[in-house]
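Sample intake sheet
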Amino acid sequence: MRIYNIVLYKLMKLYTRRQVIFAAGISSVVVFIFSFFVLPRIVKPVRPISGDAEKQQAASVSSDNGTAEILQKSPAESFTVANNSVTYTQDELQNIAVYEKCNEAVVNINTQVTGINWFLEPVVEDGGSGSGSIIDNKGYVITNVHVIDNATKIYISLSDGTQYEGKVVGTDTESDIAILKFTPPSGTVLKTIPFGDSRILKVGQKAIAIGNPFGLERTMTTGIISGLGRPIQNSNNTIIRNMIQTDTAINPGNSGGPLLDTSGRMIGINTMIYSSSGNSAGVGFAVPAETAQRVASDLIQYGRVNRGTIQFVPVQLNSSIADYANLDISSGVLVSEVTKNGNAAAAGIRGGTQAVRYGTRNPQIIYLGGDIITAIDSIKVASLADYYSALESKKPGDVVTITVHRARRDISLKVTLAETSGT
């Protein structure tokens, strides 16, 4: 132990107090010089990117071997927002303007129907759904007949979520147009969609649809008018003439909704699609606004469409009747009987004289030997659907040219249309 103490004492005696203080001072100076002058030249710190550096995607430094190394930005620095303004194309602005102008006037229509349960008791069931447009601030809505077909209850939902029970004002199966009405609270201001002029439409013109496909309320799709003047037969076997064809996406639930131009005017009522799957296949059809406006006016005023008519009993001509009667044509509308003192008789149209029983399940008496109507105002009439379609836009008092086939030759006759009987 004594030897250890002697050695420690010897070592401690190697430096004096003044030498220790001097050595400590020299060390502090060396550390200061190294920290503030030498170290920054060896390591360059990576600073946050700001100012002009925001345009850079990485910062580069030189390594000891001269190779450039890329320093990626941190996740927090990866995205920057230049400003809060958004630029839209002219087409987008057009779409936005039409939607904002019209979407609140598009309604969702849901129906209930009466069914029969297992105990043969009547029960209320969910029916179909579709779309419609408010066309009057009194609460009148235009839609398709097939949207409300067989409905016992009709509910009309507005854009603000309110729902009203609607009543049927009138329906017209020949154009597939129906008018409904709901009663909003007093003081309510309804958004409406004005009718446009479907007579001046052009193929290639932009078309916009707003509706409720698959229950997705107020969905907007765009496309073009891809065809005009299409005669299309609907599910009721009625031919609707001058239909608008469009590639605007129309799906189940769009029926009854508006087809719009770029000014937000209703140029058609979306009615049907051509598809094997039931979904949009790029071919949809709309009843032209010219027809819809005329029909809607009559339905609101009279509860029915006041069309001109020819007063006779029509029979669809077919090959069986043609063979039996030894006729030289097998299509057209056979004049079975003319109404006494009616407009058909006054125009010289002749009815049949040979009574025959026609039909198997529900046989009826028809008369052969009369005229066969083959055209109305140059519109070919090959069936009853063609006949009613040709008269769809005619009013009582209008004069039409009827082509009849008589004794194996064609004859033209002028007929002044009468008012349709009934309510």
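Comment: The longest strand covers residues 122-136. Residues 1-15, 46-81 have pLDDT under 50 and may be disordered.
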